[in-house]
Write a structure and sequence with these properties.
With 320 residues, the chain is an alpha/beta fold. 21% of the residues lie in helices and 28% in strands. Helix 1 crosses helix 6. The chain is globular. The N and C termini lie far apart (49 Å).
């Protein structure tokens, strides 16, 4: 098929290929001195909406990166509209195998959106990415459990009765992951896109530094079903089931540095007030015994023995 790859390392924004063709290149969100970001644009042979897909906001969430890379192999001749994919947004975090944070400034990129053009490294990157969101008709951000997290697959989007939120909910349902969570998500990608009037979904599968086929396929097929829902594809893999809807996402965090001994696992149902584990100091003295504030399902659980004050421990999704 036609390929309009340029590989140019100083491009500020994606290329625009002819209908039925693709473009790929390395973008420089921070200018010449910053890290390069791989980008792919597939221009459909027929007109249609513009979809932006990102992954690698957190550099060690590998199932999401692998799923986004697979999307870049679609045949543009089969598409209606434009598909833009950035499979590794946070290249420095990816190269460093960094957990949660961007090495240049120690910030969690997915907490600083919509960013600032004159801010820190993460804030500049968030500002640049928010601009790409605003150019799209819909936005999908692929994630997973980080290197130290076990995770139950879910899709999350901004709540509300407005048209943007309703369209985001339909896209999240199309992912057909076990759970759909409605969350404000301050500072996160999908909330920034929602503020721009762009329906957005953050989808998660995989974790612990692994990219098993089931997790990669869950995200890849979810994107394909979302594209079908947008009338960008004529066919997509069938949905295994309709997700259960959750309206609260309650996180427990560590109060101390030391050791973390979890007592629950991802996918487990817990009751309000149930102990989730214990945090000790390096001498074995108990420093914290977190309990769940809600009844619900464990969406993620940190599996690392080493823990730092402020680190997440367990996230529980609740129906109400």
């Amino acid at each position: 098929m036609p390929d309009a790859s340029s590989g140019r390392p100083n491009a500020a924004g994606p290329g625009r290929p002819e209908p039925g063709q693709r473009w790929s290149g390395l973008l420089k969100p921070h200018g010449d001195a910053g890290p390069s970001v791989p980008c792919f644009v597939l221009e459909g042979a027929a007109s249609g909406p513009s979809l932006f897909v990102s992954a690698g906001i957190h550099g060690a969430e590998y199932a999401s990166i692998a799923a986004a890379q697979r999307l870049t192999r679609l045949d543009p001749q089969s598409l209606h509209g434009r598909l833009t994919v950035i499979p590794i947004v946070n290249h420095s975090a990816y190269a460093a195998r960094s957990i949660y944070i961007t090495p240049e400034d120690g910030k969690n990129l997915n907490r600083v959106f919509p960013g600032r053009p004159d801010g820190s490294h993460s804030e500049v990157l968030a500002h640049w990415l928010t601009g790409l969101m605003g150019d799209a008709d819909a936005y999908l951000d692929l994630h997973g459990g980080d290197l130290i997290e076990a995770l139950t697959p879910f899709a999350i989007h901004a709540p509300g009765d407005d048209d943007v939120a309703r369209r985001a909910a339909r896209l999240a349902d199309a992912f057909a992951l076990p759970y759909r969570i409605e969350e404000v998500g301050a500072g996160m990608t999908f909330s920034a896109a929602h503020a721009l009037g762009v329906p957005a979904v953050l989808a998660e599968a995989g974790g612990q530094g692994l990219w098993p086929e089931a997790s990669v396929a869950a995200l890849e097929h979810g994107c394909l079903r979302a594209m079908q829902a947008l009338d960008m594809l004529a066919a997509a893999p069938s949905a295994p089931s309709r997700p259960a809807v959750l309206h609260e996402f309650a996180w427990s965090r560590s109060d101390a540095d030391g050791c973390w001994y979890p007592w629950v696992q991802a996918g487990e149902t817990v009751r309000a007030g149930q102990p989730l584990g214990v945090v000790t100091d390096l001498l074995g003295t108990t420093r914290q015994q977190p309990v769940s504030s809600v009844e619900g399902v464990v969406m993620f659980a940190v599996t690392s023995l080493a823990i730092n004050a402020g680190d997440p421990l367990v996230g529980v999704g609740a129906a109400a």
